Amino acid sequence: MQIPALQGDRSSNAGQAFGAAAAASSTVLLFYMARTMRMQEKESEMQRLVLESQQRIMEDQCAETRSMKGEIHRTSAALVRGVHIRLLHDAVSDGDLAATWPTLAGNISEKKKKQYLYINQVLSYHYLAFEIGDYSEAVIESSLQALFTVPVWREFWEGVFDPNRVPGDSAEAQFRVIAERAYQAAESTTPLRRNA
């Protein structure tokens, strides 16, 4: 069944007009959607750049924090070494305090006790210089080698160094290895009691 009122030219024009309006609306809608998508893409790119920048800043801050932590540790170690040297100084000045050091117990003359305490101070200084990086391993070894040519230095080292002790990987263990090499190298200039 056909309805005559819907078959006229007017209804055909209205349908065409509606179709054209729908097509125009779709075109405008597509344009705005494309524009919105481009804006979102630019916004996402900006956010990515901001996040990358923040990540770099955080990585830099982490590296700086690690560096500061290392410096604080070295400063603390230097302060502890300073206290150790001060304690040794007090023992050198006072025979009663010197008697409290285990390596000085027994029948050791007061002169020898003072010498041993002084040697301990010098070794502590060299260790601190090694630990904080003031002097290279080669410089430390050369300096100690010269000191180990003195008989009292060799006697002290022979009393405190255990050649059977397995060195670890700490700075102190590395220093002991350097000192022992210096002691052994001194043999070329002065006979060592340990090898006699």
Task: Describe the protein's architecture and organization.
This protein is mainly α and 196 residues long. The chain contains six helices and no strands. The protein has helices spanning 9-93, 95-98, 110-131, 137-147, 151-160, 171-185.
SSE order and pairing:
Blueprint: H1 9-93, H2 95-98, H3 110-131, H4 137-147, H5 151-160, H6 171-185
Helix pairs in contact: 1-3, 4-6
List key phrases describing it.
single chain; 196 residues; mainly alpha; 2 domains; 6 helices; 0% strand; rod-shaped
Number of helices: 6
Could you tell me the strand content as a percent range? under 5%
Question: Mind summarizing the main beta sheet?
Answer: none
- Briefly note the structural class of the backbone: mainly alpha
Tell me the span between the first and last alpha carbons: 131 Å
Helix and strand pattern: HHHHHH
How does the overall form come out from the CA principal axes?
A: rod-shaped
Averaged pLDDT: 80
- Domain tally: 2
Nutshell version of this structure?
The protein has 196 residues and is an all-alpha fold. The protein contains six helices and no strands.
